[in-house]
Write a structure and sequence with these properties.
It contains 15 helices and 22 strands. By secondary structure, it is of the alpha/beta class. Belongs to the aldehyde dehydrogenase family.
Length: about 475
């Protein structure tokens, strides 16, 4: 880990230090990992200018060259997988085995876009007369600015930066102030792989407002990408409006997880464990409202209770850790407030919720959850499974869709007709059918309604960083 532990912003291929510093806290021990410098306004502007200079050079490089650089970056990330995973567990808290999986998943985006760089095809358009030839081709959009969250400090970075570089764009990244160390390590490895100087800049700051305003207000920044809450996303969209930036937003979710009585219940509960408790429930696609058909409720609860009771909450470096700490004290407080509100309004609790100390939260199951409870409407972002019984398909679809969000949804069924009906009826950008873990670099990731704009992953993710130019030639 130590050879990839840096403490300053990374601008134009060099580390940029300031007099102001803040601590990066290990959520498991609540001790400082290191002190990092807090970027100033001059540094943000320098990063934007460096990215603009890099874009001027990068946009004229060929796709094969960019592909080769991305492949070298991929190789370096895999070579340093263990060090990156340890760094992630240290600053984010997730179990080491999950961190190792995230490094591989995040590297998958680099590998995918190393290939997609060579596939940004244009087209010849059939002419409407004999005197013209019509065509279109794609060009990089320009300097990209992005803000990434703390819950996936590697994958959230690579799935933005890799397609941007593949397209020929440069990047200015502001990672979460809670987990910036992985982003710095990725930028260092990208530089070692041969990234154009200034093509990948990382800004460390506790002052997200200042950095965000400078990035969104800059005329040089032509694309803005954000992963985080819907509230912050709305504010950033408004800030991007005066300069008409292209935006992509991966925002909040409230994922339904539906278990029909004809499902393979063992498979359903197994899938639910991954969808709900991975990363301690701190994912935007986590199962948030778990709908179980009433005739299968007792069986599901019996199976689920046994699996949840077996979960081990511990420091992510502990060999048998299943759930690490929540990211910071306010996150734990929020989970406990949601649980308390639900219990006060009639929910029942399964599990031992004794205080485990620090940022550690015991996994719980809540039954008899209703729409009057806050936990029904808010992302829990913690290891609490909220169970809602339903009687028929029409009822559960109405409940599943009756929220302003539409990121991910899951359901388990063995009725093929029902599978088609439900997958088409769910108002979500992604649907898992008999599967609780759906993210994949080769597939488009994103939501509808207030869960965001645009897609990351798949060939669609490359298009987010490309402009289409139409050419009409008279002959």
């Amino acid at each position: 880990m130590d050879n990839l532990l840096f403490s300053d912003s990374f601008i134009n291929g060099e580390f940029y230090s300031t007099a102001s510093h803040f601590d990066i806290i290990d959520p498991a021990t609540e001790q400082s990992i290191t002190s990092v410098s807090d970027i100033d306004q001059a540094g943000v502007k320098q990063a934007i200018n460096a990215a603009h200079g890099a874009f001027i050079k990068l946009k004229s490089t060929n796709a094969t060259t960019r592909s080769a650089v991305l492949n070298r970056w991929y190789d370096l990330v895999i070579e340093h997988k263990q060090a990156l995973a340890e760094l992630m567990t240290k600053e984010q808290g997730k179990p080491l085995k999950e961190a190792q999986g995230e490094v591989e998943y995040g590297a998958g985006f680099i590998k995918w876009y190393a290939e997609q760089a060579k596939r940004s095809y244009g087209e010849l358009i059939p002419a409407t007369d004999d005197n013209h030839r019509l065509s279109s081709f794609k060009q990089p959009i320009g300097v990209v600015a992005g803000i990434t969250p703390w819950n996936f400090p590697i994958a959230m970075v690579t799935r933005k930066v890799a397609p941007a570089y593949a397209a020929g764009c440069s990047f200015v990244l502001k990672p979460s102030e809670h987990t910036p160390l992985c982003a710095l390590a990725l930028a260092y490895l990208a530089d070692q792989a041969g990234f154009e100087k200034g093509a990948f800049n990382v800004l460390l700051s506790e002052n997200a407002k200042m950095v965000g305003e400078l990035l969104t207000g800059s005329e040089l920044v032509r694309k803005f990408t954000f992963t985080g809450s819907t509230g912050v996303g709305k504010q950033l969209l408004a800030q991007c409006a005066p300069t008409i930036k292209r935006t992509s937003m991966e925002l909040g979710g409230n994922a339904p997880f539906i278990i029909f009585d004809n499902a393979d219940l063992d498979e359903a509960v197994s899938g639910l464990m991954g969808a709900k408790f991975r990363n301690g429930g701190q994912t935007c696609v986590a199962a948030n409202r778990i709908f179980v058909q009433r005739s299968a409720l007792d069986q599901v609860l019996a199976k689920l209770t046994k699996k949840v009771a077996a979960l081990k909450v511990a420091n992510g470096f502990a060999k048998d850790s299943d759930i690490g700490p929540l990211i910071y004290p306010k996150a734990k407080q929020k989970v406990q407030e949601l649980v308390a509100d639900a219990l006060a309004k009639g929910a029942s609790k399964i599990g031992d919720d004794k205080d485990l100390g620090g940022n550690f939260q015991a996994p719980l199951i809540l039954t008899d959850v209703t729409s009057e409870m806050d936990i029904y409407h808010q992302e829990v972002f913690g290891p609490v499974a909220s169970i809602i019984a339903f009687d028929d398909e029409a009822e559960v679809l109405a409940m599943a869709n009756d929220v302003p969000f539409g990121l991910a949804a899951y359901f388990y069924s063995q009725d093929i007709k029902q599978i088609y009906r439900v997958s088409e009826a769910l108002e979500y950008g992604m649907v898992g059918i008999n599967e609780g873990l759906i993210s994949n670099p080769v597939a488009p990731f994103g939501g509808v309604k207030q869960s965001g704009l645009g897609r990351e992953g798949g060939h669609q993710g490359l298009d987010e960083y490309l402009e289409e130019k139409y050419v009409c030639m008279k002959i």
